[in-house]
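User: Second chain of the day. Same drill as before.
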Amino acid sequence: MPPNPKIRADGSGFNRDIRDAVSVIGGYSKLQEIAERVLHIKQLVDRRYIFPAGEEDLEKKWLRDNIERLKLIIENIPLKLSKANFTGGQKMIMLDGKNPNNIHLTIRDAVDKKGPGLYDFMIKILEVKS
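Assistant: Same format as last time:
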């Protein structure tokens, strides 16, 4: 549970906001990891790396491994929110792309700071809904 959660007025649980959700998924360092992985994947797809002769398979391995790890991080967000005792409604708000204060907008901000359009690239490469 994030530090010092605010107890709801009715005493039946805790008020949660985007800061709590970011904390639960691993904090700003996790957002940075996501952004770095997306940038790395984009550079691999754009063939920005030069691999030594005979190491071309390494490029495919790096690409596959980074996509798998990124997908795992994104797919585990709902599970982490549940484990941190976010209610169903709180999870829905944090995961709903239409809510102006959701985890995907926070991830978008972090990823797009690495380069414009990288979040859209991430969604396309992972084939997940934002």
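The beta strands are 6-7, 14-15.

User: Great, on to the next one.
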